[in-house]
Amino acid sequence: QLSIFLTPVELVVDRIHPVWLFNTVLLLIASMAVTLHTSLGDIKFEIFCDTAPRTSFNFLALCASGAYDGTTFHRNMKGFMIQGGDPTGTGKGGESIWGGTFPDEFHPDNVHDKRGVLSMANKGPNTNRAQFFITYERQPHLNNVYTVFGRMLDGWDVLDQYERLPVVGGTKKSVAYKPLKPPVIERITIHANPLALEGIVYPTSTGPPEKSVGM
To answer: HEC states along 112-151?
Structure first.
């Protein structure tokens, strides 16, 4: 088990011991992570609670409520992305934790710059609900159009399997990219939720955050 406590031998005047720093970074990453346990294996993500707090609050609340349990990845586009989070499996369903939509939440550090970026799906500006997607490659044209709120940490072999999944095909847009055997999100583990630990809640979809009573 990692420890963030320094022994006298590890203390160095005017500098932080590199082992302590490395262990601390690992713990901080783990404290903002979730694992999606899917029918093809586990995929783990860091959630950007600091730079996309409202979006993270929505996603983590939906995870905790079991809203994603049993849902599928209903849209799979090789070289682009795979999309999920819709309880209807059609691409038309899913609600935010507030029951409607919520605003986009852009940050200069949160961009679609690599494989494994976690981002919200939408139907236009400020129409986020529950659906999300994972990129297969960098997609800079999506920046400031879709809200990035996480990045993949582990499960790259599973993502490789997703990208190879055959799809229905054809000219009917609603099902052309639907996997023949859609991966299922069986359950989700929240390793820790910094927002919950600090008692931070977003009582409305557009209003400011509040501190829970007693926190």
So the answer is: CCCCCEEEECCCCCCCECCCEEEECCCCHHHCCCCCEEEE
The pLDDT tens digits for 85-131 are: 999 999 999 999 999 999 999 999 999 999 999 999 999 999 999 99
Amino acid at 31: S
